[in-house]
Amino acid sequence: MRRFAALYAQLDRTASTVAKREAIAAYLHDAPPADAAWAVYVLGGGKLRRLATATELRTAAQAATGYAEWLIDASYQHVGDLAEAIALLLPPGDGALADTPLQVWMEDWLPALGKLDPPARQLQLQAWWRALAPQQVFLLNKLLTGALRVGVSQRLVVQALALWSQLPTDLIAHRLSGDWQPHAAALSALAEPDSGEEHLTDRPYPFFLASPLEQNVEALGDRNDWLAEWKWDGIRAQLMRRSGEARLWSRGEERLDGRFPELETAAAALPFDGVLDGEILAWNAAGHLPRAFTALQKRIGKLKPGAKLLADTPVRFMAYDLLEHDGEDLRQQPLRARRERLATLLQDVSPALMLSPALPATDWPALALEREQSRARQTEGLMLKRLDSPYRVGRKRGDWWKWKVEPYTLDAVLIYAQLGHGRRAGLYTDYTFGVWDRSHLVPVAKAYSGLDDAEIATLDQWIRSHTLERFGPVRSVEQVHVFELAYEAIQRSSRHKSGVAVRFPRILRWRTDLAIRDADKLDDLRRLAMD
Amino acid sequence: MRDDLLQPRSQGLYCPAGDFFIDPRWPVERAVVTHAHGDHARIGNAGYHVAAAGSALMRERLGEEAVIETHEYGEAFTLGDVRVSMHPSGHMLGAAQIRMEHGGRVVVVSGDYKREADPTCAPFETVPCDVFVTESTFGWPVYRWPPIDAVIADLLSWWDDCARRGVPALLFCYALGKAQRLLAELALRCDRVAHVHGALLQPVQHYRDAGIALLPTVPLAENARGTAMAGELIMAPPSAANTPWMRRFANASTAFASGWMQVRGNRRRRGFDRGFVVSDHADWPGLLRSVADSGASRIYVTHGDGDVLTRHLRELGHDALALEALGES
Question: What ipTM does this complex have?
Answer without folding.
Answer: 0.93
